[in-house]
Structures are given as C-alpha cells and as structure tokens.
Amino acid sequence: MSVQAALAEAAAKLGPVSDTPRLDAELIMAHALGIERDHLLLDTTRLAVPAGFAALVERRMAHEPVAYIVGHRDFWSVRIAVGQGVLIPRPDSETLIEAALAHFGKRGPKTILDLGTGPGSLLIAALDEWPEAHGLGVDVSEVALDYAQANAAQLTKPERASFRAGDWLAGITGPYDLILANPPYIEEGSVLEPQVAEYEPAGALFAGADGLDDYRRILPALHPLIAKDGIAVIEIGWRQREAVTALAEECGLAVQCLRDLGGRDRALVCRPA
C-alpha cells in the first residue's frame, strides 16, 4: 500500500473519533517515519508505509491523544514533550504569551513565575521569547516536573529555568515581573471528550463544583508577588470571566480580559489596583 492510500484509509478510520482525522493520520505517519509532517507532504511517492503505522492508528482509534502517541505538542515557538500524566498544551493557552508580549514588548520581563507549570509549556515558551529572562515553574505533580525539566533542555541556557514541587503560591517569595498560571477550571461532573477524560490527568482539569476552587487559592496571595510594572496572566474557562474577575477585584487586583483566536474569553491580565 502506498503512503497516500494508507493516509486515506487511516483518515477514514479516524473520522468517528477525531475532528481532524486527516491531520491526525499525517502526524502519526510522520512520527512513524521519523520525519516532520511538512517533509511527509512534500513527496509521499518516495516513502514506504512503516510497519508500526497501523498500531499507532489503533491507539488513536481508542481515543488516545495524538500528542501522547507522537510524544510532543508544538506550542508557541517550542516543541513540548508530553506523555500520560501531564496536561497537553492547547493553542488557546498561547493567549497568555500574547498578553505578556503586548505588555512587555521586546524588552521582556526579567523574572517569570509559572504556576501549575505542567510540562513547562508557558515558562519555556516565555523564556524562548525573552532570552535574558529566567523563571521558576511550580507544580504539584512530580511526573509533570520531570517532563518540564526535560523540556527546559531545549533552551540555549537550560539553567534559566528551575522547577520545584509546590502547592500554588505556598512558600513562594517574589516579586516577579511576569506571573503565568493555567490552573484547573473545569466543573466537577462535566462531560469531556474521551481523549481528555480517559487520558489526561484529572488533577490538571477539575476544580470543584463551580470550577473556581484554585482561583480562590491563587488570587488572594497574588498581589504582593507582582513586581512594579509587572503583570499576572491567568487562564480562565470561556464562561468564567465575570466570576474570576470578581474574585480578583476582591483581592485588590485590576483586571483586563483577553480573548483567544476563537473569540472566547481566555485570559485575565491582573495588576495591583
């Protein structure tokens, strides 16, 4: 079977489990071949279908996320290694980097704190954007921190990123020019897609009956950790703008809401009022 025929067959099989079956098939094929997707698309006629491709497609048919199958997800300007036990970075979260870029421009922040760093996506993307900055990533998951440490190795100077196990802001002293946070914000009992519900860590997704539990823990301690002329940028669920804004304002923070590429409320930029 040719690569083109194998891709068409895989895309047809993946149709019931994916919104992007052809893209999934191409990413999996490129991974199986050990090449980048753009190289795959240049000329498939000189390639042979690798023996392991069918088994990888079967994993995707069982709803396993493509990022876990291929072992990474591209985020902003960096490639983030991921696997079971860590949250997969989403394009929507790039809104936080865009907000920081709009505030700091090319001068950038000097110090960055990333709360709930997961595999280090936000921190490493920010450090790649501003080569003179250094930062700290905090997470409760040792699995996530192992991935974050490995991902930091792609930086020109990996020592610019440090990581520690921690419970949000407990034991953190500042101030920091830029604080980033992507806490869990999904309501308990929400029905999620199988590729999320069955594979990604529940602790990185759910935050109590109303999805606000972790904002209630983070926001009261945030004000004194924001440096002069600095900001904190916090991701929110697209229907949580009013609730999280009210919590932030109660904690003495001025808030601006930014939308993601889909036009949905996605990030709150917080400053001391």
Notes on the structure:
There is one protein chain. The protein has 273 residues and is an alpha/beta fold. It folds into two domains: 3-62, Helicase, Ruva Protein, domain 3; 84-272, Rossmann fold. It has helices at 3-14, 21-33, 37-42, 53-61, 66-70, 94-104, 121-129, 142-152, 194-197, 213-218, 241-250; strands spanning 72-75, 78-81, 111-115, 134-139, 161-165, 176-181, 226-235, 253-259, 265-272. The chain has a seven-stranded mixed sheet, sandwiched between helices. Strands 1-2 form a two-stranded antiparallel sheet. Helix 8 links the parallel strand 4 and strand 5 (161-165). Helix 1 (3-14) packs across helix 2 and helix 2 packs antiparallel against helix 4. The termini are far apart. The model has no long low-confidence stretch (mean pLDDT 97).
